[in-house]
């Protein structure tokens, strides 16, 4: 089975779960045919950093993240995904946009069975139509109830079970067939960062299991219906602070 | 700087406008590239600034109505009865919110002034107070002033207001029997879906008088407005004028929805709420996706006029807060918070010129299609309403959550 991974560079290329998932897939004998990096370049990363953290925050945020990650027992950053890919002899492409003509051309040459989204924006219909089996996404909430953005935060705020869903990608927002749901509990001392990290690790394992199931023809997709859930958007800072307070009130670890 | 110097003479206005024209693209850059919301102070100070400016609109006319707007080319404009009516309601609410009696007193001054300009037929003239002798009574203008009078009557129990209201109510329900769409007294003589707001006023009056004709008229209007809603939530006949750019404008859509929503609250008719939810879901999603709401859409919800109508954003945020209050759907609370954060960012907050300090532009950027190069009083009024309701919705929020 030919698998292609969509990811971002340099943003989010040094994440533990990506390395784990890549090694896991390769270990099962499903070596990805390529990793296609979109939104590449310093300017794109700079724009993203500015939008997310602001001018001052861009310089402080890395240090904070480091501290938080130590708190959740992650020993330093992982290696860059592109270095791991090089080690495993997986071709890597750098493009501007996953929806662009260059990406389409690369995909038409590779003719993948499956695309895995490991950090990509909204993928258009014409790209989604290229892989024979489909495109998979890891969603950091339980579908179909909570779709959209900041879904981990929304799950906590609404008192819903936290977890991840691996699902096929369709043009509708998080509306594709569900392949796997994994739940986990919020523990004392958990922060938004630690919960997000748990989501990443769970997603990484989920991808390996789902790809393996698809490879063996054992997957059982579950259809979603439009009226089963709601689409959520970026959470306002006032509500985000409520989420933080809710987590803090669960007490220290 | 003395108070006098804080008022803008024509030359200063031109210079200030040039500054505004230069700074609006910078504001857009900040929105595009920096974190949202770009707030650095509490919403209460924004509300206070807005209310102080609204008081200034009242003072600018010598306390004979609220000046329609402050414009760069004409300074303070004559009082606008229609908006003075609903601004009085905001003053009543803010006096409760802030415990400042001066707002209550000014609200009553506004309502009394409006009693004095009621026309013989019971209506309120279209346009500004200067048009009183020239223009006929307007359906919408009358309805909006009624909202102020109703609040004044509820608070003071002064029979003068009730008598005035009954005359206005009789005018509206009377012409309704001859002309179902109110075309003769309607703005630009065309039907308007936003007359649902007039239905709200008549319905509220029915609550005070129990006069059947008022209820019949309100139900009749709601029925017609609901018939204008398409399957995708868009309302036909939501235009201010025949110009396509004013159709599907967020300001008019919000007027329509608010009328229906208040109707639902009084009548408890689920159909009215369903209609509001259908359209609000679409508008909310469009706003939340980009934290942006254009001036107008076409019937397929494609953008027609891109610059933002700040009045429309403020009005929709009120509707979203109210939907959250009714349905507990927290996405609408989030949208309301986002919209009010955005408006706080777009308010003229730090200007040295008191003529505009605390006000809102008609359009962002200021040269946009809706009320260009001016600061209309109704934009600031709806902003103040939205912050007052925001405070109510976020008080004890954690207790409300599941």
Brief characterization of the structure:
The complex is a heterodimer of chains A (253) and B (402). The longest helix of chain A is centred in the N-terminal third of the chain and has 30 residues, at 42-71. Chain A has a 7-stranded mixed beta sheet, with helices on both faces.
Structure notes:
- The complex is a heterodimer of chains A (253) and B (402).
- With 253 residues, chain A is of the alpha/beta class.
- Chain A is built from eight helices and nine strands.
- Chain A has helices spanning 16-27, 42-71, 81-87, 101-110, 125-128, 151-157, 192-215, 237-248, and strands spanning 3-8, 34-38, 92-94, 114-117, 134-139, 146-148, 162-168, 178-184, 230-232.
- In chain A, the strands form two sheets. A seven-stranded mixed beta sheet of chain A has the order 3-2-1-4-5-7-8, sandwiched between helices.
- The longest helix of chain A is centred in the N-terminal third of the chain and has 30 residues, at 42-71.
- With 402 residues, chain B is mostly helical.
- Chain B starts with 9 loop residues before the first helix and ends with a helix.
- Classes of the chains: A alpha/beta (253), B mainly alpha (402).
- The interface between A and B is medium-sized, with 24 and 25 residues.
Low-confidence stretches of chain B: none
Principal-axes geometry of chain B comes out as globular
The biggest beta sheet of chain B is recorded as: 3 strands, antiparallel
Count helical runs of chain B: 14
Number of strands of chain B: 8
Query: Greatest interface and its residue counts?
Result: A-B, 24 and 25 residues
Shape of chain A: globular
N- and C-termini, Cα separation of chain A: 43 Å
Strand arrangement, major sheet of chain B = 2-1-8
